[in-house]
Write a structure and sequence with these properties.
alpha/beta, Spore Coat Polysaccharide Biosynthesis Protein SpsA, Chain A, eight-stranded mixed sheet, globular
């Protein structure tokens, strides 16, 4: 798969830094004005990084808010896979970290990602999942995710996936799918080597669990994965997830 070319907004070119970045953070966005500032401030606190926001057609002030920060703001056609591939194509460092706009990794995450990739046999990694809620049910979900991430080597996109640019390009980037692009990408990636879980949490918003219900959301996610493995067309699955 050929990764897409970038198309930056005129007013949001990346400002020069004294030292080149060690890690490029790619953040796909779609109507994230309420929270985009949180992830940008956390990402920019990591001095060794560059930050690339790839907007998929927001109708709110997401691009305007992001453009006020020393980050690069790109536009792409909607779709998380396409947005992340667009950001990867624009990145200037050899390590890529993909973060959802509603996910906030703990301070020091950039160094932890780089250190994880230095371990022998490790080709990619992610962070432990923490959900921004006091719900006991969501604590159980976190434990299940921790087991899946470590035992089955299958962290998902809301855990902040990081890997080298060379590995990303060898796999052809994220598959152009309307849903489950992270699941399919990890299936391909884990055949190549170890998927490490860095010893920090990535705190993600509980909004999708609140909106649909905790157990309904969990059951739907698992059902969609089973349907995908059974050969159900991904376009149909994507409609169920909307």
């Amino acid at each position: 798969m050929k990764l897409p070319q970038t198309s930056p907004d005129d007013a949001s070119e990346l400002r020069s830094r004294e030292d080149p970045p060690c890690l490029s953070i790619v953040i796909p966005t779609s109507n994230e004005e309420a929270q985009i500032h949180r992830i940008l401030e956390r990402a920019l606190a990591e001095k060794i990084t560059e930050v690339i926001v790839v907007d998929g057609g927001s109708t709110d002030k997401t691009r305007e808010i992001a453009s006020a920060y020393p980050v690069r703001v790109l536009r792409s056609t909607p779709g998380r896979a396409n947005q992340m591939n667009t950001g990867a194509a624009a990145a200037s460092s050899n390590i890529l970290l993909f973060l959802h706009a509603d996910t906030l990794p703990q301070p020091g995450f950039a160094e932890e990602a780089i250190n994880a990739l230095r371990r022998p046999g490790v080709i990619a990694g992610a962070f432990d999942l923490a959900i921004d809620s006091d719900s006991a049910s969501l604590r159980l979900i976190e434990k299940c995710v921790a087991w899946r991430s470590r035992k089955r080597r299958m962290p998902y996109g809301d855990q902040g996936l990081f890997l080298s640019r060379s590995t990303f390009e060898e796999l052809g980037g994220f598959p152009e799918m309307p849903a489950l692009e992270d699941y399919e990408f990890l299936r391909r990636l884990r055949r190549r080597g170890e998927i490490a879980i860095a010893p920090l949490s990535a705190v993600t918003s509980a909004r999708r669990w609140r909106e649909r219900g905790i157990w309904r959301t969990t059951a739907l996610n698992q059902f969609c994965i089973l349907a995908y493995r059974a050969g159900i067309p991904i376009k149909s699955i994507a409609r169920w997830l909307k």
